[in-house]
Amino acid sequence: MFLDHAKVHVKAGKGGDGMVAFRREKYVPDGGPAGGDGGRGGSIIFEVDPGLRTLLDFRYNRNFRGKPGENGMSKSMFGRGAKDTIVRVPPGTIVRNAETKELIADLTEPGQQAVVARGGRGGRGNNRFATARNPAPEIAENGEPGQELELELELKVIADVGLVGFPSVGKSTLLSIVSKAKPKIAAYHFTTLVPNLGMVQTRSGEEFVMADLPGLIEGASQGVGLGIQFLRHIERTRVILHVIDMGGTEGRDPFDDYEKINKELESYQLRLLERPTVIVANKMDVAEAEDNLEIFKQQIAEKFGDDEAPRIFPISAWSTTGVAELLDYTAEVLKDTPEFPLFDEEEVESSVLYKFEENQEQFTIGRDPDSTWVLGGERLEKLFNMTNFAHDESIMRFARQLRSMGVDEKLRAKGAKDGDMVRIMTYHFEFVD
Ligand SMILES: Nc1nc2c(ncn2[C@@H]2O[C@H](COP(=O)(O)OP(=O)(O)OP(=O)(O)O)[C@@H](O)[C@H]2O)c(=O)[nH]1
């Protein structure tokens, strides 16, 4: 099965805790501080593996946890940093923050990496807090928590081969008989259009994705301001299969159809005619088809003259005659056909790059029903988590950090009085003006 969506939970490793320790030397009753820093927590990194084609793995495995950094040790020894966790994803994976929908990474090139959750910094040991006034501090930080978030993965199903042709020539029939799997695809964000796509496997096991291209193009010509991602579908379509009804159903003339469709393709200005085309002469099971094909072949030969004419594959989508040969040849042409960029490199670059911003609110002030003041906010909670409450001095340092962020002042401005209770997560304390 060909899955295009997955939701995963990632939590990077916490930094190791800093240590409170003192030197113990012979004959020295009170040595200086000797608590080492904790090591960095492991990040979670997504890496493109060109061998993958689906997001199937994420159905069974949707939780990724980074390794914690090692705690700091006595004798000023640092904790070791944790190894990052590498998660392999197929090329074409788009990663978003599931909550805000913000784009985190657009992974396309083999080996390309994106840090999706950063490991926490190691907490500092007490040897880092020594000052002239406080030569033996009992202050150490806990490691910073690793980043944690819910991610939405989306695999761009890129069509290698596009089907074109008049209505009722048999495009859907052909697609349905060659598709090994129908990718479950969602409507694009910007249109309600769901292109008709199929995964194709040739007799020798080669794979490519085939799409009903007119469906895509019609969407593109209707939609104002279609995203770059949408047009990339057409850009990545390297080979065109032009399907023609050789049965001449409803009095149609095959060559006339062929010319009309080409005119239309030209008008889209998507470099479609530059791509190699294979002509699929369909409905060869119909009585008149053989005669029609002979005439069509002559017309094509005349049109192209000495130029290289596209290959014509007579098939019957209905009885599947000739279809395997058509697919073999298509796979071969695909191999030697590059992409047809519609956008200049710079534009693509900026859409490929990912951003990773820390957008932290400083702090928030709310109230519990019993009128306890409640302090929150990402940055404040992080400082709280990094405080080692086993040591009074560490707690005092936390109080200083709050003051310098302006928490005291803001509380006072909101009417907090001496003796009021204040809560941060599960920790209660008294407000002292
Ligand atoms: N005799 C015969 N009929 C076929 C063959 N392939 C398709 N048909 C028939 O032609 C009709 C149209 O086929 P579709 O596959 O729906 O054609 P389409 O090109 O996808 O048409 P649109 O969806 O309108 O673009 C259907 O009734 C098919 O059964 C074939 O090889 N031989």
Secondary-structure blueprint of this entry?
Elements: E1 5-11, E2 44-48, H1 57-60, E3 63-65, E4 85-89, E5 93-97, E6 103-107, E7 113-117, E8 148-155, E9 161-164, H2 171-178, E10 179-181, E11 197-201, E12 207-212, H3 213-222, H4 228-235, E13 239-245, H5 254-267, E14 277-282, H6 289-304, E15 312-314, H7 323-335, H8 345-352, E16 364-367, E17 373-376, H9 378-385, H10 392-405, H11 407-413, E18 421-424, E19 427-430
Parallel strand pairs: 1-3, 2-4, 9-12, 9-13, 13-14, 14-15, 17-18
Antiparallel strand pairs: 1-8, 2-7, 5-6, 5-8, 10-11, 11-12, 16-17, 18-19
Helix pairs in contact: 3-4
Bound molecules: guanosine-5'-triphosphate.
Guanosine-5'-triphosphate is lined by residues 165, 167-173, 282-283, 285-286, 316-318.
Instruction: Give the distinct bound molecules.
Output: guanosine-5'-triphosphate
> What is the CATH level 1 assignment of the largest domain?
Alpha Beta
Helix content: 25-40%
Q: Structural class of the secondary elements?
A: alpha/beta
User: Span from first to last CA?
Assistant: 64 Å
Q: How many domains, as an integer?
A: 3
